[in-house]
Amino acid sequence: MTVAPPQDLPELTQANIGRLLAVFAQMRAGAALPAHGVDDACEYCEMRGLCRKAEWGAA
Ligand code: SF4
Fold first, then answer.
1. How many Å apart are CA 35 and CA 56, to the nearest integer?
2. Which residues have CB under 6 Å of ligand 1?
3. Per-residue pLDDT for 43 more than 50?
4. Which of 2, 22, 26, 42 could form a disulfide with 37 if both were Cys (CB 3.0 to 4.6 A apart)?
5. Which residues are within 8 A (CB) of 57 and not within 5 positions of it... i.e. 6 or more apart?
6. For the chain, what is the domain count?
7. Range of the domain at 37
């Protein structure tokens, strides 16, 4: 089963490329990487110790 996004795919692709370029530039500049998981998922997540969401004050 395939799912088509409601947006124009070439526009969505360009927007995603722009987002990734911006995010990687921010990481290279030392930006923090806070955990953004949804609480309902975090409750059962086995990676909780790695992302340290609680340390970010987000949980
Ligand atoms: S616990 Fe961390 S890694 Fe797991 S879903 Fe939440 S934010 Fe993501």
1. 7
2. 35, 37, 41-42, 45, 47-48, 51, 53
3. yes
4. 42
5. none
6. 1
7. 33-59
